[in-house]
Amino acid sequence: MSHFINIETELDLSSVNDPFDLIIVGGGAAGLTMTRELSGQNLRIAVLESGEFEETEKHEALNAVETSGILDNPDIQAARKQQNEPQLNVWTVQTQKFGVRCRVLGGSTAGWAGKVAPFDPIDFEQRPWIANSGWPIDGTDLAPYLDRAARHLDLGPMVQGSGFWRMAALTEPSEIAALHDFDAFFWQFARSRHSLTDVMRFGPDFRREHHANVTVFLNTTVASIVITDGAVEGVKIVSSLSGRAVGTIRARRVVLAAGAIENARLLLLSPGADHGPVGRYLTDHPSVSLGAFDSAHMDRAAQVLGFYPLREHYRSFMYSCGLALKPDRQREYHMPNMAAFMAVGIAHDDPLRALMRLAKRTSAAPLKDVATVVSNVGVISSAMGKKFLNYERIPERLRRLLADIVVFLNANMVAREFIGGGRGRQLASVGLSVIAEQPPEASNRITLSEQTDHLGLRRAHVEWELPDSLRRNIVIFGRKIAADLEQAGIKGFHIDPALSDPDGRSLLIHDMAHTAGTTRMGLDPETSVVDAELAVHNVRGLSVAGASVFPTSGHANPTLVIAALAIRLADRLKREIFEEKIGSLAQPVDTDSSRPLAVITGATGNLGRNLIDVLIKAGWRIRGQFRNTVPQHDRVEWVRCDFADPDLPDAAFDALVQGADAVINLAAATNDVSEMMVANVTNLDRLAQACVRQGVRYFGQASSMVVYGSPLTKVVSEDAPLIDLDQPLHTQYFAEPYMREYAKSKIEGEAVLAKYRSDLHVDIYRIAVAAGDKFLEESLNWSRGRKAIALYRNSHFIAPHDVARAIVHLMSSPASSSKGIEVYNIANSDSPTFTQVYRDAGRKTGPYIPFLFDLLKGFKTNKGFSRRLPMGAFRLDDSKLQGTGFRHAPRS
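Now predict its structure.
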């Protein structure tokens, strides 16, 4: 579980002596995405967040910047205030005259609208008409990481243009099909997994998750990076509010993920890291209103350029349609990438407050309030629906299903409800605004001000100007879109009078708070700060994440690409740390070749760690295979090998099992359906073949109780029928689709091993849920929603150490010396259930809500109530195991 420490109140920094494997500076989208990717792999990770769980005005004061040039124009600052203030908590235009930073866990996602999109292929190109353009990577390099980032952000398919209409099974509006210079461009919205009527807030979502070996330091402002002889050693920190707590947190790898302003500022504050173009090539997304639709046509415009649903895998996702300049037109007109998005105004008559006044009999104008309520019945109903969707006693799966249904039925209503803050949906205005790519220029930059904050650290000074060419291009863009709309039949658009000047001198162009580019990526240290792997040039161990590494930023909102690059960086750091840790592990202590050798695959997992301990005590030498989790046991010969790799050579399997007396296969793909066939079937077969070639005596296979599906009896022995793969799986196993696929792969894996019964002794272990007493006791402190589901499901447990003891008992028994195949339920029929633990603690367990859903699911799929028993309503019979002489360890 993540450990949170507030250094203002809870920590004497002298106690932080042991170095971390990695320090991530910043708890925003980039930093927390990396943390999620790297957690749970035996890495000690420190996340340093300058804020707390909630924003405060004193934290906001640390965001103050000094500005010059157009940013001192009060009209531009008024436009920025109108754009940003309504959706932010403590942000002020006086403090942040450029950009939006939220010093809080979750970073700027505390105040964003959740809007994301992928970059266009042209954004990565070196374009002769855009100075300093071109990335050292391209879209194909980033594509797999975009897919993973989409899963982090809970997004639907990455689809654009005409492909969207086909995938969404919608007819493309004739007006969009008739456009000449523009294509439809689609943004998505990252939705919270917990507050289903809100966009994703990384901070609250992260707090509800469990991340092993992760320490989040709150109120921890980084004063500088410690660099010695060109290598990072850690960071100097100071407590954010009082400044009283100061110290150093050490690590040989540090990632700056604090945003484009702070990343540059920290490098400039750190001797040895302020070289080259740090702070230069600052960009944002310039924006300004292009015009508005008249009242007679704004409803149709809002319908065409509005929100659309797309369903995939029983989920509904919401897409916002805008208009982007076609790539070939960008080349023809020598223009940067730009798009127009719909900006709507919602009438803010508040029917909820009117209803409250009427209920409390405090209304000064009851007839007016009654009229407001009556005319806004939909808003009242929506408010009640929002409360229902966020009511945690209702299972999250049901609430999410209902939220998806609402999105599918009326995506525009959902969007207007959010924009209107729940107070109305009626359109007051519909306009178009531009979001433009800003060509990077070295003169736009972050430097250090002579002013200091209340911690004594020099503030950032922002120089951000717009070239005349960009102003002219925005005018051209606005005029072309007005002409294209008229020609395509989208009527009633009136261009803003400010675009009448071809030079755009009167345009009040402001930033969109998508600050980027201050630590740009490139191959030349003279013009870039980080390389293509996001490592800072000439500083070993220091990397940067976030939009600050963008060489150019297209027009798309940046968070999706930020997350993708963060995942790519996490993969690189994972590889480096693994190699370093494996290299530092001592040779196994047990090198006596007279001792038997056991190979354990999946040896860094829960069962693997326990099995290593039991085997070493029994006198075995160990060779352990691992994929991602960093191994730590120094009495094991470690081999890194990915069983999900379809191209793994036969030589890798032979080398893994060479000289082994026994092989215990615990490795398996459990969640990713795309990996299950390779890892659980194909490469299992190849592993068994290698065992035959290398003369291995014993093969143990970790199967699972899922192979029985939803059985017909409350006590299930090894002779019970398995899921019939020739029949529909959903009628035999009441589980999520991925679990049904997992069960299928485990059954096929057992069938594969049956082929080798004349060459090996094979034991198949059908294991109940492996979790110990501590896990059951921790459930006493779970949330109500989790209890309502988990207190019913997964109720048949066996301690992992007991599983390990059972495996060693079987592989050491006289029967294991003869060839053949045996199947054993590895279970403890006397293990406690959640219900027993709760009753022993004097707690009530409440209704088993999922049981009702399983009954209904069985009724629907079988056209009647099924005799099959869902998880939690049956137990494995372990009498065959006990018949071999095995006895379970007593409960601790």
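The domain at 589-771+796-830+876-883 is CATH 3.40.50.720 (Rossmann fold).
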